[in-house]
Please model this.
Amino acid sequence: MKKVLIIGATSAIAASCARLWAGEGSEFFLVARSADKLQQTAADLAARGAGSIHQHLMDATDYSAHPQMLADCMAALGQIDIALIAHGTLPDQQACERDVQVALQEFANNGTSVIALLTLIANQLEIQRCGTLAVISSVAGDRGRPSNYLYGTAKAAVSTFCEGLRARLYKVGVHVITIKPGFVDTPMTQGLPLPALLVARPAAVAKRIVAGITSKVATLYTPGFWALIMLIIRAIPQPVFKRLKL
Model:
């Protein structure tokens, strides 16, 4: 029976992962900023066979609230077997270009707050000398594209941070997995002109994430074909890349 901490628990991908763990009778400490959505998620997991479910309201960008959240989690679960950090937003790139404050807030949503939580949770897992720290980054962090480079910058920071953290925690028996989804059919992407053939369902993405956590993959592209797509995109020479509309 796993003991699972999920931050951003009401997001489509995180909730889909939780449903799979709930079927195994896992215990949960769920963190989100919407009380109504959090209650709905908890009720759904309970119906699917989850063990104890604890709910905690928190805005991830309120850094002062992080220590108390973790303390409450440890009091409730006793140990963390899996910590999944899944919160974030998809910013309006043009709004970020026009307004510095918008840009900084979106970077906090997708980058700084994730790094702050990683640091805190990593220290706890280091004390335990066991557990898995799973972080949802994005393929957008693999290369800066004009259409979303603020978001991509934040995700690149998270991915690089995880690479160093993985090497550090490996030595004490803790695994760090960086998850890089491509286009996923979630409320965050509704209304965007995405190529239908490349858009995955959250349930399919979740199956790959849960399997990747079990097998201790270091970096997980999901769906898997994004590894090839991003390999090609990273290989495009800069003189050509800067002329593309991506």
